Amino acid sequence: xxxxxxxxxxxxxxxxxxxxxxxxxxxxxxxxxxxxxxxxxxxxxxxxxxxxxxxxxxxxxxxxxxxxxxxxxxxxxxxxxxxxx
Length: 85
Description:
The protein is mainly alpha-helical. The protein has helices at residues 22-36, 65-78, and strands at residues 15-17, 48-50.
């Protein structure tokens, strides 16, 4: 029998899709799976990013500076003050 790698490990979900609702639906489904795996979830912040061609380059970098800053600030603001992330 395998081990649950997600048990008691905090998780957060952010996604992107070309349409208005795709990532919201996918994130809800992923949250259900994480819940079943006993992974405590950050319920806030939530982010639904509409994907546009060129938003993420071949190296995985976000090319839109406003979106990149939003993601950086979301990450910083969701970490506990004791985290050296």
